[in-house]
Fold these 3 entries.
Entry 1:
Amino acid sequence: MSTITREELKEKLDRGDDFKLVNCLADWMFRAKRIPGSIHFEDLKHALETLNCQEEVIVYCSNRGCTASVLVYQQLREHGVQNLRRYAGGIADWEDAGYPLEGERVNQREEKRTTNSPRAPVR
């Protein structure tokens, strides 16, 4: 299984490299929190209809112990996706590094932090 490190993934995103970043978690988890630019598929059929077997695909899930990205990696490989890598650290590793996230739960936390933070006086 070919993997990618957090730093390599961050560099690819910062450069705007052309690849598909696939979040392998359930839909509600994808909506709640994800690495910016991630996509999600309801099932393998939809993924195979959407992905080009020649393009670079990086899969991830929640953390090192999560097997969702391992299973998706294996299924995509079996169906001909060749340029495939796994970001094993997942969302937990990304968040631990302080890198940005997007999603419904991320926005709620940011909103609360902004609402509860002291405001500068208006002049």
Entry 2:
Amino acid sequence: MEQQRATFLDQFVSPLVMWLLIMAGAAACWFAMPHDALWRSQWWMTALLIVGVVYWITMMRGALAVNPQAGQPTVNNTVIVDRGVYAIVRHPIYSGDVYLMTVLALVFPYGWTVATCGWAIVVFITWMLLEEAVLRKRFGARYAEYRKRVPMIFPKVVRPR
């Protein structure tokens, strides 16, 4: 594979930039949104939180187990990883992040929490799409084939044969 020069988009799609955006949004939500509960928490929300944390940990550990580049800027990716957790979802860490933010918004139903989690989800999905653009450019047809086989955020449920 011929080495391509990194573009501004390649450099911009960085975990540091993404987390800076999320933290800035969280700070804005803290100051702009109400701190009173929007609804009352229920017992099942705690169970949902436990499932959310377990899912997030599973996705994070699964990604790091098979992809030492997970969590690094996309521009550093040198191969398409399609085994392990990457065989059922293209962005396992973001999948866990989105699920966990959704659960946190339900379990801690304060105006600022819901707004912050919503902002984080928007940033995560935007980042997935930006990373997809970088990976499509870098890997071309091989990445297009991978995209056809594996969903972006919701894990593929494998039916037993």
Entry 3:
Amino acid sequence: MKTPIAVLLLAIAGVSAAGAEGAPAQTADPALPVVGAAGGKADGVQLEKALQRLPWRQFKSVVEAVPKLRAGVEAFGPVGWQIVRDNYTRYPWHKNIDKLDEVQKKQLSELIEAAQAEK
């Protein structure tokens, strides 16, 4: 399980080191809804997009507050956080988010909404 994530993170780091474009500018529409309309359940792709729109400091605090997401990054030690910092706006977080149960997705959604309100 950790190996595919490690390979993906290293591949992303390689693209970044090879002169890929810098982190894209934040979108002008920070008020996009985080929670889906269907029954109020959060969708992994919606959560991913909302998470990627956050500035780095808010992004990191949200990820640190969700144990499964934090563990996925911390499994690679300090270099894991550096790779994430360089690539968090392009990394496919929905794969990790889809592994969360509904309670954890709701918590993530609430954390993202709180971080968006802080902007």
